[in-house]
Specification:
single chain, 161 residues, alpha+beta, 3-stranded antiparallel beta sheet, 6 strands, 14% strand, binds zinc ion
Length: 161
């Protein structure tokens, strides 16, 4: 009784949770399990559909934090699609923090199915995500700041005069 990676089929000891090579959640290998109680992990592992474990990991969705990402992973797992999380590039958040956006990665063969699940649940849309116009936000903050300075000067002058 060992754990194997559903993605690259590499065997792992039972105390591992994720594949060392590709960080997929591990599933139980063949063989009857006597000592292992039917844990929730086992329950989940049984659900993974072998059709959805082929190919490279590709990004299927984006979550703004760990809890949301895990919720989406659970939804995908309901359909037998294994997934793994990656910290979205460009955000430097210490690893111990649960904050910070996550990319949800699925094997390429599960991508279409995963998209269907997430589209159905209206988690993602058909349109590519609108990149936040950072420049206009900076401008808004600047204008807000200037307005404040102006008001302070105005009322300050009023009070002094
Ligand atoms: Zn692997």
């Amino acid at each position: 009784m060992t754990l194997v990676c559903p993605h690259c089929a590499q065997p792992h000891p039972l105390d591992e949770r994720f594949c060392r090579a590709c960080s997929m959640p591990l599933v139980y290998g063949d063989g009857p399990s006597v000592e292992e109680p039917v844990s929730s992990r086992h329950e989940r592992a049984r659900k993974i559909d072998p059709r959805y474990v082929e190919g490279d990991l590709v990004r299927v969705a984006y979550a703004t934090h760990q809890a949301e990402a895990e919720f989406l992973q659970g939804m995908l797992l309901e359909e037998g699609i294994p997934s793994t999380l990656r910290r979205t590039r460009g955000f430097d958040v210490p690893d111990m923090l649960a904050a910070g956006p996550r990319d949800i990665m699925v094997p390429a063969s599960g991508h279409a199915a995963a998209r269907d699940v997430l589209l159905e649940a209206e988690v993602i849309s058909d349109r590519p995500p609108d990149p936040e116009p950072a420049a206009s936000r900076v401008l808004a903050v600047l204008l807000g700041g200037m307005a404040l300075v102006f008001l302070l000067a105005w009322f300050g002058a009023d009070l002094l005069g």
